[in-house]
Amino acid sequence: MSVILDKTDLHILQLLQEDAGLSVKAIGAQVGLTVSPTYDRINRLKDTGVIEKNVLLLNHEKLGLGVIAYCHISLKNHAVDTSAAFEKQVTLFREVMEVVRLSGNFDYMLKVVTADLKTYHEFVEGYLSRLPEISNLQTSFVMKELKRTTAYPI
Q1: Cα separation of 27 and 39, whole Å?
Q2: Domain boundaries, position 36
Q3: Looking at the predicted structure, is the pLDDT value of residue 1 above 80?
Q4: Of the candidates 110, 120, 129, 118, which has an alpha carbon nearest to the alpha carbon of residue 70?
Q5: 44: helix, coil or strand?
Q6: How far apart are CA 32 and CA 29, in angstroms?
Q7: Are 39 and 80 contained in the same domain?
């Protein structure tokens, strides 16, 4: 269900997507509102679920996480209980940053982050490949990140 947003709401969201640490005063100055109505708008955006949460973006390489892999997974079958069991297990792994269900050649795609190829191999061999619901797993490794954003095009 979408929420009706005006031009000012969209401007506030654009600013917050670029820097969630901006003060209410700074946001208000950029959208032409005083602090109180800006604060009210931000709270309304939170209350309606448009803003889910505020997070920090970290540099994975500086944290020693040099390998990003995309795992393309096919399940053994498409039964509801098979998908549910897989989803329950795969979302528990710390190395798995994102899980999406797909249409097309694969059922799921996982974004996995590890320190190095050895650690990735240990993760796949020790955890991911042991999930009984998986029939096929193919991995693509990120060679170079060209664009990384969390900002939606609003």
Answers
A1: 9
A2: 7-47
A3: no
A4: 110
A5: helix
A6: 5
A7: no
